[in-house]
Amino acid sequence: QRMKGWKPACLLLALVAATTGCRASTGEPNSNQVAARKDSTVPARLPDALTGVWHPDDTQGAASCRRYRTLSGAKEGHDEAVMALVGSLVVTPHLIHVFAEYGEGDFHVVERVDPEDGSTWRVDARLGIDALPDERASEDRVVSRLSLRDGKLRWESPARAGNASSTYFRCDSVKPDIHPATTDEKTTEDRS
Prior knowledge:
Elements: H1 2-25, H2 31-40, E1 52-56, H3 59-70, H4 78-85, E2 89-92, E3 95-99, E4 105-117, E5 120-129, E6 141-149, E7 152-156, E8 167-172
Antiparallel strand pairs: 1-2, 1-8, 2-3, 3-4, 4-5, 5-6, 6-7, 7-8
Helix pairs in contact: 3-4
């Protein structure tokens, strides 16, 4: 007779357990799973401390920086702006543009940023040479490291092997009217 009152409670517990198990198997995440997923997402954005125009830490870089700072915008002329950026890294939240002549160079479109410590980041990117990389291409992926110590940016990238300077100083912010392709949040525009 005692078991009669106990059985419905067991059935109720079993039903609750089964329902919870069924809910978990429907593929719909519960609030704990959603919170855990948000915490585990990896940013595809460089920290604000790394953004800007960075010139090589040498006398030529200092001269180019002075030229860049005197430009007030696109009205200064494209050639002057390009010449002031040659040799620099133009870093936006989603792109590292190694600026070469005529606006060409290496375009590292950021896909993943992993902080290694408080001043070093591992960056996974798609690489385009002299143009933004094709969004559909799976090749041309590179991994580089950026570190910021004492106001100096150090960039280690396999795409930059043999470069005379891989240490840079921050010259200024990116002027959107001089370098508009990289100041957009998306970085890559619809190129259809």
